[in-house]
Input
Amino acid sequence: MKISPSTVRRLRTERGWSQDQLAIASGLSLRTIQRVEAEGITSMASAVSLAATFEIQLIELQGEPGVPGSRKPLFAGRSLFLGIAVITLASLIEGLRPLDFSQAGFFMTIMVLVVLVGMLVALPALVELVRKRQFIGIALAVMGTPLVTLLAAGVIYAVASGRIPSWYLSAMGLCGVGLVIMAARELQRTGGPGNT
Output
């Protein structure tokens, strides 16, 4: 498969990587990276690996030499935040439900399914972050996301019931927002999932 050597070189240098570092990040050999940057010829599997490493579409690797890509890599850690928020919301709803034992089994089944969906959303990003040893970003996300979810649910409840959210709910939620922002910056700075 033919890809643009200058595009690969540009994407590598934009990240401040050596050819050795790109080889490690992509799971390819150093010789493969050297050949790609010299000749622009590689296997489909190697091209797919490079595209995944750079978080771009495969077609962007085939672009004209020297033409910068217009797409900036997206922050891939968003699935971690979303999954934690879903799990938190399910836990919050479970804790607030009335004790009606006639429908307890059905309600519990629904909540377990929602928690499983949240875990399925968050797990791939979490595994990737653990593999990359991004423990600070994980800890900040795990502490902040439930607080932001609690704030959002509390504000929605307060607006629906015609009340003003309590000051301690607002304070906790704003602390959570700060933690989530710090987590996002940490994961983006250190190369969150997919940004090896």
